[in-house]
Amino acid sequence: MSKKSVATIIGLSLTLGYFFGELKRIERVEQVSRVDKPLSSKNLLEQKFTTVGMVESGLPLQNNDVNVINFWATWCPPCKKEIPIFNKKFATDFEKGVGIIGIALDEEDHIKDFITTQPIHYPHFFGQQNVSELMSYYGNSMGVLPFTVFTNSDGQYLSSVVGEVSYESLSNAILEAQKLIEKSQ
Hints:
Layout (H helix, E strand, L loop, with lengths): L2 H31 L7 H6 L1 E4 L4 E3 L7 E7 L4 H17 L4 E8 L2 H10 L6 E4 L1 H9 L9 E5 L5 E6 L4 H18 L1
């Protein structure tokens, strides 16, 4: 095969991959926009998510002054890199009113396999449609991972970070969220 033929095949493959990826993304956005009952902070507190043990539960938001909700997946390298950071932050700040909650856009089997090598010490949940809806509610309709949201105890949005966080950037974002809560009181 000539270089021109290879380049043409590669170009065509990339174009088709992009086209079909966009179709899938549009389909997912349309599904997310067809929510029967739009999320509000009130029904967010009532919405159920599934734990790895297949228990349906609401998000443990109300016991914390600041909630850090991290959306992640086992197939996302930056997401996996963040987990020790969230484990450490949970260990040091939970008693100070900072809740860390992980929500995986993933399948239960993948998460179970993953946590055998990388334990997660904070509450974590998983799902597909309801996780996409919650990400969209907090402003991430494209489903970019990792995605970290900071809320008050009622689940009201304070700020968010798209992309990987470091321990320092996470600590700074929590301080900023605490300041926003203090200002609103």
